[in-house]
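Hi R.,

As promised, here are both runs. First protein below:
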Amino acid sequence: MTKHTQAEGPPGRRMPAAEPAAASKRVNKAAGKTKSKPANKPVSTKHGEAAIDVRIYNAVVNAVMSHKLPPGTRLGEAEFCELYGVSRTTVRKALQRLAHDHIVDLRPNRGAVVASPSPQEARDVFAVRRALEREIVPLVIRHITPASIARIRAALDAEEQARRSGDRAAWIRLGGEFHLLLAELANNAVLQRFMVELVSRSSLIIAVYENPGAPMCGNHEHHDLMALIQKGDVAGATALIEHHLEEIEARLHLDTPERKLSLAEALFGR
């Protein structure tokens, strides 16, 4: 068993990062045609507003999980309105959902900011993750099927491809999604729901406390874990997942802040 570890990422929503309003398109289902939406023009239908509400949510989640939007970054409603061409009501819905998932904090007189977990919260989150994932691994082994193994292998291949291409953002996101896949394969909806929140909060913690220049190590422990799951080795797989999470926590520097980017720079690279 190797001690190489990797950063964990995002919440397990496989959504592409949103694009600015000028580049977006919406489908006119009644006409069966694709229609371009002009830049900075509010969407006039409730359906369109709801769709952009989800896009804003996913864009922020992806930016946070890939470390482009550091904790403490202010998320101004007016800037979202300008970037997406929507009303403040739509933006507030997205921010409220982000706050519910502990990705942002809504502060009186300050608006929304990306959540900033404390060192003690970091320790608490990883302690809970170790406890939950010790329960998840035996359930995965109990319910394992050839199709499950194929999904795990595909997830590992995607991680490795991201690492080799140097795509750190994708690598971080896929690392977190690997753990969420295990939670799904455990066939326990309550555990899976808890893990979605914990992986999101773990990525925030890593965004604050991990050395930004840390190398992208190979996902050896994820591969080792898959091998133990295939063998049905409950004790070995449980010990490995605990060690894996301990190693990730040990790499954190609890007194090193991250630099902040503007919202437009984080979401759209400008």
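And here is the second one, sequence first, then its structure tokens:
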Amino acid sequence: MEYRNLGKSGLKVPVLSYGTGTFGGTNEFFGRWGKTDVKEASKLIDICLERGVNFFDTANVYSQGDSESILGAALSGKRQNSIISTKATFQMGGGPNDQGASRFHLTNALEDSLRRLQTDYIDLYIMHGFDTNTPIEETLRTLEKMVNSGKVRYIGCSNFAAWQLMKSLSVSDRLNLEKYIVYQGYYSVIGRDYEQELMPLVKDQELGLMVWSPLGWGRLTGKIKRNQPVGEGRIKSGGAIGSPPVNDELVYDVVDSLERIALEMDKSIPQVAINWLLQNDTVSSIVIGARNERQLIDNLDSVGWSLLPQHIEELNTLTQPNLLYPHWVGKR
């Protein structure tokens, strides 16, 4: 397993981390992703640890806390060798303060996550989304207090627009508060929006990127091909709900290219798609998911080798997105 620093922090993490969105599946939305219980989760985590993947990513909103509970139980006796990231801000109840990045909500959310995860600290605490109703200073002062208390070691953010991230970093600088060291965002060979606004910012501010949904929300598993019925998996089970938009023809073209490259390299389609991401130097870790051992082992074999330059060029050319304004002006 290859390890990289998490942003410009001193924390080294494996380039692959294991996402636990499939743990629990106890509500309708996450049930489409998977329904992994504690027994199966323990098996998958043992495989990860054997392969050097000791970084586990979850969120309080995943199955309304059940993912955290299952991860905590599965890591019993293994916590000291593991790195845990979890997230907060999204809706966790019916009350007006059961969401957001206020001091009130985050303080309660952290205590709830610690209890469910059966731990007294979180290695990486991520703001799952930007809260437009809470002053940035309030959020960052709350996170600062959490770090100083020892309950949180590092902080990050996810799904922020570039200006929201930059403003947050600026406030941290101005008030000498703890800074986000990592951005967790969607990035895949069929979803390259990250490259236009966020990637230059991540480079400039020396953050790291944690990639979520590297297989394009299950579209790059090899189960979706031109003129063929969709194979069993997240998409067939209705899991496309809430997914990033993508043109079907682009998916078919990209899968054709991935399959051709996979045959040349003696790899699988998902392995090629994940390895393409590893060639980006802003990537600190790629969050992989798996419903079963076979999927997990296949994804873990995405490391230890590199695509050839001509393969990278082929995929880059095929999936180059149209530039947003004002980037097309600069390009011209």
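A quick note on the second one: Residues 241 and 315 are 26 Å apart (CA to CA). Let me know what you think.

Best,
J.
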